[in-house]
Every structure is written in structure tokens, then in C-alpha cells.
């Protein structure tokens, strides 16, 4: 079954926006959900094209009621859901000894609980059998970095939630996977591009393959996991990181 209807959470910018653009170009009815209403309007304008089936909705992954309304509206317009792509996330660098409880809670509430809430909200609209869920995790979920512990822990939690969903939803043939990029230039990370941030956090340099990850790299991996070509892949986290988490590279 090809993807006829896709929901992209966090779809108004960065990886999410380009993911939505890809699926629209493939003819899929696409619903983007984002917390920022102004960005949602901008994304709707940027993605609108003749013949495209697009719904752009504002909802907060921390608010189950707003998510329920958005998923019901999008699924009603587009005849259900074939694929859900979760790209929402926050990055608040700080040393674990210094991070505030508010920032720690926000990081987990968006990056991990937000994913759990979205899958719960989407489940009634998937077909009885089939479908795909893909969450954008991070190489930090495999290799933590000083000054970024809460983010890394939240991404590890996200990956384990996805694995558990994959086991529990397997009887429905609903597949659940993650992609884990290394540092990528998006609105989430560009503010750290100039060097060290709070807590001593520094974005990763180029991995062994010699270049930074791109949005296109993530979109291609996500599209593959949503396709029939990945019909026997579930519970996996695919590292899209140029070998960053593979081990220690050769000395230059």
C-alpha cells in the first residue's frame, strides 16, 4: 500500500517541512501539525500548489486535547492516516548539574511524551492493518554528549517508546521505527552553529563520511521507512549519521 495520507508533526519548519514537501510532491494528502500558528500559516503558503491536498493545523504535542482535535480534523479531511512522521523536538543545552526542572521537564514532555501522545491520538485513524510511524530521534540517543544530557536521554526514551509501540502494534502490521541523524543545520540547531553553547555543549563536527547530515538525507530515510520497500522493518532505529556512532574513525 502506497502512502496516501501522511501526518507530519513539527511540520512547519526544518526536517518536518521538507518531509511534508516530499510527500506532497508524491501526491500524498498531507497534514502538518505544529505548535506555532504563525509558522503553520507560513508553511501552508509555502507548500500550497495546484492540486495538492494539504491541511495545516496548529496544535501542541504537550496538549492531548489539541492533538485530538487536529488529528480528527486532518483525518476527516484526508480519509484516515497511512503514515505518521514525528519531527517535533526541543534542544535546551545545559549541564545536568545545572539544568532547571522546568527545562528538563519540557525536554521530555516534547521529545518523548509528545511522541507517545501523537501515536495515541493517531491510532484510531490508521487502517485495521498496515501503516507506518517514523520518529526523528538523534545520534545523541546512542552517544550522549556533555552539556546535552537531558536531550540525549529524551531521545533514548523516544527510541524505546518506538520499539515498544512496534511490539504492541505488530498484530495490526503497523510498523514503528526511528531515524537518528547526526548534527544537521535546522532552526533547532542553527543557533549553536557559532560554537560552544550553554553547559559546554558543542554540535558534532563532520562524521567519518566527511560532511554534515542534510535534511534531504533524513527525508529519504523517512520516506523509505514509510514505503512498502520497508515492509519487514519495524522496531528499528536507523542511524543517518555518516558513521558518527559507528566507532572511533581513522586518524586524519
From TrEMBL:
Keywords, in A-Z order: Oxidoreductase
Protein name, as recorded: 3-oxoacyl-ACP reductase
Similarity comment: family membership: Belongs to the short-chain dehydrogenases/reductases (SDR) family.
Record's keyword annotation contains Oxidoreductase: yes
One Pfam family in the UniProt entry: adh_short_C2
GO MF entries: oxidoreductase activity
PANTHER family in the record: DEHYDROGENASES, SHORT CHAIN, SHORT-CHAIN TYPE DEHYDROGENASE_REDUCTASE BLR2146-RELATED
Keyword Oxidoreductase: yes
Gene: fabG
SMART domains: PKS_KR (SM00822)
Residue span(s) of domain Ketoreductase: 4-173
Amino acid at each position: 500500500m502506497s502512502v496516501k495520507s501522511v501526518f507530519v508533526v513539527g511540520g512547519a519548519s526544518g526536517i518536518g517541512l521538507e518531509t511534508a514537501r516530499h510527500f506532497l510532491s508524491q501526491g500524498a494528502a498531507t497534514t502538518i501539525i505544529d505548535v506555532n500558528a504563525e509558522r503553520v500559516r507560513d508553511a501552508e503558503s509555502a507548500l500550497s500548489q495546484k492540486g495538492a491536498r494539504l491541511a495545516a493545523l496548529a496544535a501542541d504535542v504537550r496538549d492531548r486535547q489539541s492533538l485530538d482535535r487536529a488529528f480528527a480534523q486532518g483525518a476527516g479531511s484526508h480519509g484516515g492516516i497511512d503514515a505518521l512522521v514525528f519531527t517535533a523536538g526541543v534542544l535546551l543545552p545545559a549541564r545536568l548539574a545545572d539544568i532547571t526542572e522546568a527545562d528538563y521537564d519540557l525536554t521530555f514532555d516534547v521529545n518523548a511524551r509528545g511522541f507517545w501522545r501523537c501515536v495515541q491520538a493517531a491510532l484510531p485513524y490508521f487502517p485495521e492493518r498496515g501503516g507506518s510511524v517514523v520518529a526523528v530521534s538523534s545520534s545523541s540517543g546512542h552517544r550522549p554528549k556533555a552539556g546535552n544530557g537531558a536531550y540525549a536521554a529524551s531521545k533514548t526514551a523516544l527510541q524505546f517508546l518506538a520499539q515498544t509501540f512496534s511490539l504492541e502494534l505488530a498484530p495490526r502490521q503497523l510498523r514503528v521505527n526511528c531515524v537518528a541523524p547526526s548534527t544537521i543545520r535546522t532552526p533547532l540547531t542553527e543557533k549553536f552553529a557559532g560554537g560552544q553553547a550553554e553547559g559546554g555543549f558543542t554540535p558534532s563536527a563532520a562524521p567519518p563520511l566527511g560532511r554534515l547530515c542534510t535534511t534531504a538525507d533524513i527525508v529519504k530515510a523517512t520516506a523509505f521507512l514509510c514505503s512498502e520497500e520497508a515492509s519487514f522493518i519495524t522496531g528499528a532505529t536507523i542511524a543517518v549519521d555518516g558513521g558518527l556512532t559507528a566507532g572511533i574513525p581513522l586518524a586524519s
